[in-house]
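FIELD: query
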Amino acid sequence: MKSADPYAWDIAFDCSANGFKILVNSANKASVVKFVGKKFETLFNFPDTTIPEYPRDVNENSAIGHWGQFNSNDPISYGHIYLIGRGTRISDGKILAPKKMVINSCTNGVYSITYSNLDNSDIRDVLLSKSGNANFVYYSMEEHKVIDQEPDKSLWDIEFTRYTAEVLPNFPYLVNGILLNPSLAIAVYVDSTNSNFDKPITKQNLFDFKYNQSIDAIGYDWKTIDFQAVNATYKIKERMYFIKKRMINFSNSSLLTSIKRKMENSSRDIQLSCWKNSISNFS
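FIELD: result
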């Protein structure tokens, strides 16, 4: 298990072979304003009359979006100017100074960006190499360095974190939630009709489950807020979560026994788990 400060980074760069997503840190409620056809030296105000774009969907993170033509291994940047509203660091309430950024290129797995303060002071040219061991490489515009934020992508399944979600149309809201590892073939079935954790699971049940592969398949709505308490607290919903890590051969008549034995003997062979307010194996 690895713990990391969710507020320590500002932008993250996709490390997958054919991926070029660039994310902003929605844990800080970061936002983005895009300007097309402007020179980097142009003086900008933030915020201005332009409505900033917030990350709306953790599966796509649309705040920066398509920054270039992605029809080759080395995308061609549009050269747009992005004003990064870095938000407020929740841990200490510090308002983070906005930055402006242009994405120059991504060539041979190396991102090139230029960023500065809005008044053109402290201009920095940065090269960031994709990592073969992580989903993203994380960068702090405060510390001007790469942040060790994520463990080896082959070693984790789920992440407990904070992020901004569009809980209502055009209403981004900071939530505490659970995300899946995007580089692994993980999927989740949510059973909201039965909270009996000891209910037997049959082979046919495993066939019938409708698994969801979205990284926010568990997400944030496993709880409600109890405003009647002296201090508002989370009230956990009665749900069961079945987590599938890879394809399983259902033809084996002793499947469930086999899964149980593998789970007891070797964590490497774990195929399914069942979760109800905690992580557990089948029993």
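FIELD: remark
The helical segments are 203-208, 255-265.
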